[in-house]
Structure to design on (900 residues):
């Protein structure tokens, strides 16, 4: 097959010419698109990120498209055929070969092409380069072991596999390849991020990915969606992020569509219907051909802005219908049913054209609303109802945007982290090739109990386990976002610590004395109360922050170590356990399950305690950072480095890393230094 | 939608109530509602995310029509914090468990407890043991005996039915029993006062005109 000369290489002159035309026409709004990059501009580390590992020529893309006839995405009903003319092939070759570079050089062309829909055959690759998920080699290598790991969510994930996109061939067959892949991705994610674990709704987020890429890539991309694209907080144990999104949506609805908003208010329709939209990213009702177009916007322009814009576009286009309704039930039935999409007449272009006309969903505006939400400290209900006890308590605790700390920790902890294996000859570590690689990504353990657990362990254990659940190993989640339950327990543990450190220490030691692990007891009692608790008004806060961070790292190391030992134990006990479960025949149907293996139980307790210590250390760090920030605001002099850590780490964790210690290198492509909205 | 149109032309009394479905994941909540509202059963159902909403009207007797506004909630434990938003103004609730899953009854009991503590004081609660078709085919699959569930329901003051969304067995009966237990008379008498979810419909007004959702607290038709 001869390659047309014009398709042999990317022709930048042509790209620039079209960019120029679009620029003059001023018909393309790049604001959200560039938001993502400008958000990132201060992040110098990204200059070091190598371009996409794979380069494509236009001819190669043509070949990919031509041979994509049997790929799963072809199941999507009403999907247009990909046939691209040479200029389009040229554009996509440029975008897929080095997305960041191309997007910055030809933004208008890129945006207009993405708004018109990524060619289906290139969609999977495009989503991955946009999310920068393919560069995450460490995660990639962990995938298989994570997918095999036991977590308390295995059963509930299994129950949902058969209940996701049942109209799509790939996911129809019970136990078929589609469901198997879906299960693997979700189980791996649950093991990777135990604080989220599994939340119903994630299947719908993962399904569209699996229609366009293999499960390994889908796993990495899901992580990006959750973390960099900020969807994660909606799915944590207290779902605190959902309240924030509902608040942002409510305010945007009010300002963008005041008449309809007033109509809803008059009929007493509160915005709780949007929880279905948000938690499934509209997938429950949205036709897939439109849904994948929305995903194009998600990856290019941010998930939360797209969530908001889509909700507004949907309401706006349905406005005549909705205004004609005179009862709340009619509205609810309409907005929660598939018929809400009928107004777009199955034409994704109409939908996208509507969606991109809501520029008020900019990152800055959403940020402002977030600040407002945090300062209000409670969700705003449309009909003046008081939020319930449960929801209000969970949201008032969510005073701090999740991601500033989560990003801080993803970057910081592994940095300071020194993987030392006290007994490096231990068969565990030798046998487990994942041991070292996992230190960079710190997958959470899968074996801790959950709140409201029915485990046979003692009360103490379950409360400790709750702590561990609230804070994953990598400390990716700040204590500020922890559940109220956690907070309460944290207080009790903390007070134990501060009033009687010796008893706390001895209790840890007691638990560990029976341990057959080689880990040193002292490492579990690093956080041992006032003696080691740094003063918040002391002079050398940055040092103390460093010290604490090192402690976190040390604890993380212990946690990791325990995790691997635990995994080993579980491998031994798994077959037995499965048998006993079969006998029980699903009698224990809670999200958490008993583990018959006593040794495992003991290890779990140890793990939980280590994690508790880690969580407490994290809380300390956070307090310190707050104190530093407060000092900075009040104009008091503070060590400049640490102040920079506080202020810049909010959106720019890599910068924080650099300031703290210039010799530390960023994790490179394996971690994302930037947060997409 | 058409299924939910009240047969108001023949009824002189019309009452509307808000109903919430609760219960563990995958016990068949959505299937029960689908069977009730649309008389269909789908083997391939999507899991409910957030909550779904349906309405259905039943003719209680020759001159009484009851309309249910149904919030069908997601079952995962995690969604627990969202549940109050859905049951807050509910007049009645169906708490569903799976007769082939003992643990689902435990979960159902927890929901009942929560409702009795947090929801409307006079909420009518029905307990539904679903997937009856499975145990009728193979009794060994049963993990919750009728007697056990019945005894619990009696003790907790609940209506109780064993249902099969798949075959339709007892589904309409369940909702009819709830409708009969709802305080239609008193609510009609108070003209949509306290619970606010009910209005009389003797004028045969079309749907919606004289009815307001419970959350508005508005009164019903003043005819």
């Amino acid at each position: 097959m001869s390659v047309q000369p014009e398709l042999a290489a990317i022709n930048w002159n042509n790209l620039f010419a079209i960019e120029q035309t679009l620029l003059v026409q001023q018909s393309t709004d790049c604001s959200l698109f560039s938001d993502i990059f400008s958000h990132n501009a201060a992040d110098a580390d990204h200059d070091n990120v190598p371009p996409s590992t794979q380069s494509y020529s236009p001819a190669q893309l043509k070949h990919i498209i031509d041979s994509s006839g049997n790929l799963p995405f072809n199941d999507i009903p009403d999907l247009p055929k990909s046939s691209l003319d040479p200029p389009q092939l040229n554009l996509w070759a440029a975008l897929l070969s080095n997305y960041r570079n191309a997007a910055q050089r030809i933004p208008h062309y890129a945006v207009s092409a993405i708004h018109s829909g990524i060619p289906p055959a290139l969609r999977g690759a495009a989503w991955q380069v946009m999310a920068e998920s393919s560069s995450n080699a460490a995660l990639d290598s962990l995938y298989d072991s994570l997918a095999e790991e036991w977590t308390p969510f295995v059963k509930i994930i299994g129950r949902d596999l058969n209940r996701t996109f049942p109209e799509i061939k790939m996911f129809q067959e019970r136990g078929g390849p589609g469901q198997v892949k879906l299960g693997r991705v979700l189980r791996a994610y649950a093991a990777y991020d135990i604080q989220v674990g599994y939340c119903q709704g994630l299947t719908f987020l993962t399904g569209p990915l699996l229609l366009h890429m293999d499960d390994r890539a889908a796993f990495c991309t899901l992580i990006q969606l959750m973390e960099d694209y900020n969807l994660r907080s909606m799915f944590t144990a207290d779902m605190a992020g959902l309240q924030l999104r509902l608040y942002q949506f409510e305010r945007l609805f009010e300002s963008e569509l005041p008449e309809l908003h007033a109509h809803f208010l008059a009929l007493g329709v509160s915005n709780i219907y949007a929880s279905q939209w948000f938690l499934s990213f509209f997938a429950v009702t949205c036709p897939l051909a439109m849904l994948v177009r929305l995903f194009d916007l998600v990856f290019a322009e941010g998930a939360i802005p797209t969530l908001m814009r889509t909700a507004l576009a949907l309401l706006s286009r349905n406005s005549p219908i909705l205004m004609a309704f005179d009862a709340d039930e009619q509205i609810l039935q309409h907005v929660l049913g598939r018929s809400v999409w009928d107004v777009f007449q199955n034409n994704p272009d109409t939908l996208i054209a509507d969606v991109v006309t809501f520029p008020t969903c900019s990152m800055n505006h959403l940020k402002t609303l977030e600040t407002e939400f945090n300062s209000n400290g409670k969700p705003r209900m449309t009909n003046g109802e008081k939020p319930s006890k449960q929801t209000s308590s969970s949201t008032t605790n969510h005073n701090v945007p999740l991601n500033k700390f989560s990003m801080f920790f993803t970057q910081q902890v592994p940095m300071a982290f020194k993987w030392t294996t006290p007994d490096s000859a231990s068969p565990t570590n030798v046998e487990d090739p994942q041991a070292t690689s996992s230190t960079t990504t710190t997958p959470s353990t899968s074996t801790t109990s959950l709140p409201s657990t029915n485990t046979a362990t003692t009360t103490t254990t379950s409360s400790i386990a709750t702590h561990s659940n609230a804070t994953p190993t990598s400390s990716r989640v700040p204590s500020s976002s922890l559940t109220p339950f956690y907070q309460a327990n944290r207080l009790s543990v903390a007070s134990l610590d501060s009033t009687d450190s010796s008893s706390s220490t001895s209790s840890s030691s007691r638990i560990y004395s029976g341990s057959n692990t080689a880990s040193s007891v002292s490492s579990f009692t690093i956080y041992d109360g006032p003696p080691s608790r740094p003063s918040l008004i002391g002079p050398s806060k940055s040092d103390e922050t460093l010290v604490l961070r090192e402690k976190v790292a040390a604890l993380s190391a212990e946690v990791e170590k325990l995790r691997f030992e635990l995994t080993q134990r579980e491998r031994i006990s798994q077959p037995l356990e499965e048998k006993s479960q079969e006998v029980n025949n699903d009698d224990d149907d809670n999200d958490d399950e008993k583990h018959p293996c006593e040794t495992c139980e003991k290890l779990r307790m140890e793990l939980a305690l280590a994690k508790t210590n880690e969580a407490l250390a994290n809380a300390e760090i956070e307090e310190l950072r707050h104190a530093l920030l407060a000092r900075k605001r009040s104009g008091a002099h503070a060590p400049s480095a640490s102040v920079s850590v506080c202020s810049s780490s909010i959106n720019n964790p890599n910068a924080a890393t650099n300031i703290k210690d210039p010799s530390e290198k960023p994790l490179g492509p394996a971690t994302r230094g930037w947060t997409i909205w | 939608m058409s299924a939910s149109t009240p047969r108001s032309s023949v009824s002189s009394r019309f009452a509307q109530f808000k109903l919430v479905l609760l219960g563990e994941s995958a016990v068949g909540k959505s299937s029960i509602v689908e069977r009730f509202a649309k008389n269909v059963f789908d083997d391939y159902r999507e899991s409910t995310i957030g909550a779904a909403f349906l309405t259905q009207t039943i003719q209680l007797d020759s001159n009484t029509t009851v309309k249910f506004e149904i919030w069908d909630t997601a079952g995962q434990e995690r969604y627990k914090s969202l549940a109050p938003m859905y049951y807050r103004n509910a007049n009645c609730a169906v708490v569903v468990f799976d007769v082939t899953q003992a643990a689902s009854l435990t979960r159902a009991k927890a929901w009942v407890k929560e409702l009795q503590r947090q929801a409307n004081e006079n909420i009518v609660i029905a307990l539904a043991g679903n997937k009856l078709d499975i145990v009728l085919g193979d009794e060994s699959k049963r993990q919750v005996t009728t007697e056990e569930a019945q005894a619990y329901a009696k003790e907790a003051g609940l209506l109780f039915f064993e249902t099969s969304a798949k075959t339709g067995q007892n589904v309409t009966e369940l909702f009819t029993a709830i409708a009969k237990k709802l305080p239609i008379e008193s609510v009609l008498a108070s003209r949509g006062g306290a619970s606010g979810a009910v209005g009389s419909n003797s004028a045969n007004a079309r749907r919606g005109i004289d009815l307001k959702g419970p959350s508005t607290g508005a009164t019903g038709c003043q005819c």
Remarks:
- The two ends of chain A are 44 Å apart (CA to CA).
